[in-house]
Protein: Transcriptional regulator
Organism: Streptomyces niveus
Amino acid sequence: MAGERDDHGQPPRARRRGQGELEALVLSALGDATTPVPVGWVQRRLGEDLSYSTVITILTRLHEKKAVTRTGPGRPVLWQSVAVDEADLTALSMRRLLDRQDNRDAVLSSFVSALSSDDEDLLRSLLNDAGPGSPAAPTAEPDE
């Protein structure tokens, strides 16, 4: 209600969003754009009380995760989404983590062994549906 106060007589604070939630909001806004857009466009599109610097910070983090692209050094800098939603962003993060590992086999083996049977069945189904030669399909080692 309007005029509410906390125990110390202060107005209640707005709920603080997690970084992932803000990233998802920014990705959603960029997903609506048909061309690369400036930060101000994203800020207005969110319709929230987010500062310009907060939106820049989120876009920069998304750029580091390769979830968005940005134009070169010219002004204004324009941004465009590569990832579509939180699932894409999580998948990008997982690939980035895997790419940093020296022993991919061990990482993937550990990951798969920790899956529930339902998740394991889903993963097996997704890999089968991808078919041979698709980016998601496993590749066979050449005969020596």
